[in-house]
Amino acid sequence: MVLGLYWKRVTMPGVFAGMIAGVATVAFLILSHQDPFFGWSAGFAALCLNFVITVILSLLTPAVGKISHLVCNSARAAGRRRA
What we know:
By secondary structure, the protein is an all-alpha fold. Helices cover about 70% and strands about 0% of the residues.
């Protein structure tokens, strides 16, 4: 979800699939006692998988419309004003 703040091309299906993959990875690695996985913690392995899946699916699905970009840009602007 953080990727959506910095990359305008990210899509909802990409974010959703990435979150599902990350949660499933953490659950599998912890419940199967495979944590750490090749020296990586389960959370870091899931974060890497989440990032890869989000990017791939966002590139494979159609870009969001202009209205979504306006909402995203206004949210960024509001965050800058508070800081």
